[in-house]
Amino acid sequence: MLNKVVLIGRLTRDPETRVLTSGSSVSTFTLAVDRTFKSRDGERGTDFIPIVAWGKTAELCGQYLSKGRQTAVAGRIQTRSYDANDGSKRYVTEVVAEEVTFLGSKNDGMRNNNSYKSQDNEFGVPMDGFSEMDDDDMPF
After folding, report:
1. Would you indicate the residue range of the signal peptide (predicted)?
2. What is the DSSP pairing of strand 89-104 with strand 70-83?
3. Where are the beta strands (DSSP E) in the chain?
């Protein structure tokens, strides 16, 4: 079985980053991802995908990401539910980020891009640190 998603889009707002009582950091943000097809009226739709990052990845997202920043996220889709204050059951579908690549900013065309992979991956291989990536290294 495989649960893997790769998205490229822009942040709709600054990430919300906090430290839980357990000491773990968590960062949440929404990525606006354009659809690849146009509607009948010639408009491209946009999907707004909620992203959750944990640990060092969350800290770096909170430090370096901001509204409008172009970002690539690789991770897995997760669904969960919780009971709201009004007693109703709420369902959430989100992407848990395993790798985040900072592609550029809203205002400039950054040449050097930074990438961070989560230390916790499915293979148990430590993957910490940033890597530099030029536009020539992009597969698309």
Report:
1. none
2. antiparallel
3. 5-11, 16-19, 25-38, 44-54, 70-83, 89-104, 113-117, 130-133
Query: Residue 118 class from Cβ within 10 Å (0-12 exposed, 13-18 middle, 19+ buried)?
Result: buried
Q: What is the C-alpha separation between 128 and 138, in angstroms, rounded? A: 21
Q: Which amino acid is at 78?
A: Q
Rank 5-9, 117-121, 136-140 by mean pLDDT and report only the highest. Answer: 5-9
Q: What is the pTM of this model?
A: 0.73
Residue type for 26, please? V
The pLDDT, as a whole number, for residue 120 is: 46
5-35+45-137 is a CATH 3.40.50.12780 domain: no
pLDDT in tens, 12-41: 999 999 999 999 999 999 999 999 888 888
